[in-house]
Amino acid sequence: MLLDSIRASVHERSRRSRLRRTTRGLAAHVQLVFFLPGVAMSFFGALLAGDVTVSTAAVHGLAIGLAIYVAHLKDGYVDYYVREEDLDNPLSPTEIRAAIGVSSATFVSCVAFLWATTGTVPAALTAPLVVLGLLHAPHLDAAPATGVLDYPLGISLAIAGGYATQTGALSAQVIAIAAVFLPLLAGINVLLDLLDYDHDRRVPKRTIPVVVGPDAARPVAWAFVVAAVALLIFSSALGILPPQAALAGVFPLGAAVACVMGGLATDRAVSLFIGSTYLFAAALFFALRPGLLP
Question: N or C, which end of the chain is more exposed by having fewer CB within 10 Å?
Answer without folding.
Answer: C
